[in-house]
User: What shape does this take?
Amino acid sequence: MKKRYASLLCLVFALGLSAQSTEPVAKLGDSDLTIHLKRSTEKIVIDGHLMEEVWQKGDNAANFWQYFPYDTSSAQGQTEIRMTYDDQFLYVGVRCHSAGPDYVVQSLRRDYSFSGNDNITLLFDTFNDKTNAFVFGMNPMGVRREALISGGGRTRGGSSFSSSWDNKWYGTAKIKGDYWEAEFAIPFKTLRFQEGSTEWRFNCYRRDTQINELSSWVQIPRNYIIMDLSFMGRIIWDEPLKKPGANISVIPYLTAGMNRDFEDPEQTNPNWPRNAGGDAKIALTSGLNLDLTVNPDFSQVEVDQQVTDLSRFELFFPERRQFFLENADLFGSFGLTRVNPFFSRRIGVARDTATGQNIQNSILYGARLSGKVNEDLRVGLLNMQTARQDKNGLPGFNYTVATLEQQVFDRSNVSFIFVNKQAVNGDPDADAYNLYNRVAGLEYRLASKDTKWTGKTFLHLAFTPDEVDHKFTHGFQLELLERRYRLEWAHLFVGQGYNAEVGFVPRKDYMLMSPEVQFLFFPKKGVVNQHSINIDSRFFLQVGKDGNTIIPDWGLSERQIEAEWEIRFANNTQAGLTLMEDELTLLRDFDPTRLQVDGVFLPAGSSYHFFSMEASYESDQRKKFFYEIGPNFGEFYSGIRAGLSGTFTYRYQPFGSIAVDFDYNYIKLADPFKPVNIWLVGPRVDLTFSKNLFLTTFVQYNNQLDNLNINTRFQWRFQPVSDFFLVYTDNYITDPFSQFSVRNRAIVAKLTYWLNL
Assistant: This one.
């Protein structure tokens, strides 16, 4: 079997190295392109028609460059952008030329996906730091989206783009045959900027589905992602910007509902909870914002998508709660993926002392100060208080986080973080919790002026009541990105005593070394538009014994090597093939299926060496029916694994879609394990009756958790950022012979209203 994998790997390299590549023509770094903004004295009606005289005057951001399928020529579908402003708003007028009126608009829901839709996206780097930006977008039917970009837009895995951020602004669009027009009115109170500034960095990019083209105002090489903040032009104001007056918003809410836990024998009747609370946003300066919350409620937040869990460590799910999102990178970008000292989802979650499971812990109040003091210094301060958990014998906890980020050189920065979790009136003799948990850290983040080098190095220290060795973590990561290749080195040390209770640290007591190389190919013609070969390796050394003697100190406990070939075709489809080798020694007993009876597991100290492969294919999202599919096959610990995952979606433009997510795995391990079939199926119906009225229903069946979940969410946006939600949730045990068929059931109505004072 190993020989077959070696032959496949050689074939991957041979196919890749046979390709020809184009040479870059784009200038690395900022462009000389500029737009001069003049104050408007004319009243602008936001109706999607560029009829006002001001739109016929002034500078025009035009002459867009192609990014896909090639990056060496002018865009076929050209775009024109003009801007003006008054005391309250920044206005943007857009005209997008196209082949005709046959546009793709997947739904009328706000915050649509960029892929597969005709749309235009505007990026504003208001502090000129080349690190953070505000994003505003619109499609031909006037559906809007907004987002925040952090980390220069280059953070791998998409974590630098936060589409969950929501704020108040206005806009609409009109289709006019072979072009469409859009008007944006963005309040200065929605933006953050330095008072007195005369220049912002700016770029915009557009998707034209009819000719399958991506284009941008500033030319961007294809080995960079299109939202990379290294490539931007400038907008220049005709006079220094003033603070946009008093900027205070209050967002109260009311909730009412019913819930019942059928698995709790003490709860024989439904509960009928009612609640009230709210948030406030206070702009202390044009760049610094104070967020306040009292008795926050997040019942309207969409539940996490379930995943099949075959791993040995905790899985990561991103933050979705609105209160934590603005400037979230200021608090949550420390460390690396495998070790982060602050993870906001830890707030509002406690551990049940009886079952060891996570349970919801009510937040009483909170405050968060974040933003820019000046163009080089960002600050963040967060304090939140949770309620007591009398049923579980847990006190309330106070969470405090303080951060500083000072820009140095062109785009790099030095950052500091301090995290404190403190039990309020806790019992000094309690075993279920610590009276305090603290982490302090210092980081240097590199982003070179020529855009080629990025990376970071850090040292974080934990301060805890227990006496354990190695109460620290250290990491280093450095990446070089060139036209034809990418090189990366990363190493990470996580000590046995590094206990960051408010962070995400799924594994401790190890040293990781991870070299990676990627080769990039851009054929000049043919069905393949671009492809790459990526070799990623990870070596884990066990630092200390951690209570066992399975592996000697600094012994190799695990090795992972992945060879991946990714292909993007000219017709907008994508494919991939990954070959994997794993060699490891288990430090603890482990059941990868999570479906065996008690006493059946892979024992600690057992070693495994196995090979596997995965493939993927994504069809063209411009089609009404599109899909993703990914088979996997190979050795798996002491046996084999074979599976198939994917998504099938049918779009009824523009009113919504029906989709089915699925993940099936057949796992057969050596005796005494029983062969198992692991299913995760999730049908989803997404209806958008208008731009303000939405209904989403999805079902998640997961036999690993023995659970069937039904979630329905109705949303009516009756005013900008003001909503009525009706959410219904039902959970069932899937075993028909179980004593309880229904686990729990709830319905909640929530009303929020954004009020400017």
